[in-house]
Amino acid sequence: MAKKEESTNMVERFAEFKELKHIDKTTMISVLEESFRNVLAKMFGTDENLDVIMNPDKGDVQIFQNLEVVPDGEVQNPYTQISLSDARADSNPDVEIGEEHTREIIFEKFGRRAILNLRQTLQSKILDLQKEAIFAQFKGREGELVNGEVYQTWSKETLLLDSEDNELLLPRPEAIPGDFFRKGENVRAVIKTVENKNNNIRIIVSRTSEDFLRRLFELEVPEIHDGLISIRAVARIPGERAKIAVESYDDHIDPVGACVGVKGSRIHGIVRELRNENIDVIPFTKNTELFIQRALSPAKISSMRLNEEEKRAEVFLRPEEVPLAIGKNALNIKLASKLTGYVIDVYRDNGEDFNDDIYLDEFKDEIDAWIIDALKSIGCVTAKNVLAMDRQSIIDKADLEEDTVDNLLSILKAEFED
């Protein structure tokens, strides 16, 4: 009786795998059938003459073996053949030689070893299915923000578990300098890569990637999430400093102000998440010279030469502005180069004495602000920057009318003639 109870409801015996691994019913039945066939093939040498019928509603399985009927004494393989007398004795009195005789196999009669073998086979297949499901679930989600609970920390990496207990690995190089995690702590990161090497799934997450900064801004700034503001470029030196260029698709929305928030309310949360990483938010522009100027802020550029083919910019500054452009530990110029995609070379302007030069902003009483902005957009910050250019270049690059440029040059020249 005990043996019968142990062997009944074979499908239900393995339902625990379905519950634990979240495999749908159809797939589970298919895996069960395949597992039965693998075990039976090892026992009988083949499963080609076997019919395995799963009955999910009843919670059981039926196995039928189809045997060729041969004359008595000529059975060469008992797993594929049966003698005429045995077939007739087995509830088939009218069968003839050469016909097929079908008999039911009670799997449980093969004992505990067969059942254990079946469990092991099934467990192995379920594990493979689970890995395939995890790989399919996470592949293609690179750059997506995820949350994980710290399960264990080692010297080289930290193991996180998401809400479905999937394992996420945060290697030390992908953690922000200063990150220190305690067991049970919730950690945010982005999926960097999903690897499948030798059927070993590794989901690598990162807190140092530029995508992590992007996702945090999308989370904290509704205008970015809604598509009113776009993040056009990001550059980071994790734990130290970052620059992010943003653009608004609505003239009534200040992209920098929206990202920073009232009194820094939005950006402060991001800075805390990044272990006090300083973040510069600048307005994006398609004007390369102006974009480089903004990226090098707070330094003020005197003039600039661009090499579009080599993606290189030669920037000239007053001597006192050079340290600002380079920044502490050269962070400012490194980030500006990464943000703009240009190699930036900084030079002290050794032309005329800057004490004799005048910033264009000082001419606001005589020159319209929009004209000054147009000149700044082509790298002209001072009067001598403008006068050093030929008339036609100013017209073409700043997109100004001839009369406007002539009046501009007249005003600037008069200042120095005086």
UniProtKB/TrEMBL annotation:
Organism: Muribaculum intestinale
Record GO cellular component, one term: cytosol
Record protein name field: Transcription termination/antitermination protein NusA
Function: Participates in both transcription termination and antitermination.
Name of the gene: nusA
Stated family: Belongs to the NusA family.
SUPFAM superfamilies the UniProt entry points to: Nucleic acid-binding proteins, Prokaryotic type KH domain (KH-domain type II), Transcription factor NusA, N-terminal domain
Signal peptide (UniProt feature, chain positions): none
Keywords noted in UniProt: Cytoplasm, RNA-binding, Transcription, Transcription antitermination, Transcription regulation, Transcription termination
InterPro entries xrefs: KH_dom-like_a/b, KH_NusA_2nd, KH_sf_prok-type, NA-bd_OB-fold, NusA_N_sf, TF_NusA, TF_NusA_bacterial, TF_NusA_KH_1st
Biological processes, Gene Ontology terms: DNA-templated transcription termination; transcription antitermination
Domain of life: Bacteria
Quaternary structure, from the entry: Monomer. Binds directly to the core enzyme of the DNA-dependent RNA polymerase and to nascent RNA.
Main location: cytoplasm
Domain Transcription factor NusA first KH positions: 207-283
Location(s), subcellular: Cytoplasm
HAMAP family reported in the protein's UniProt record: NusA_B
Residue ranges annotated for the Transcription factor NusA N-terminal domain, each copy included: 10-132
Record-linked Pfam families: KH_NusA_1st (PF13184), KH_NusA_2nd (PF26594), NusA_N (PF08529)
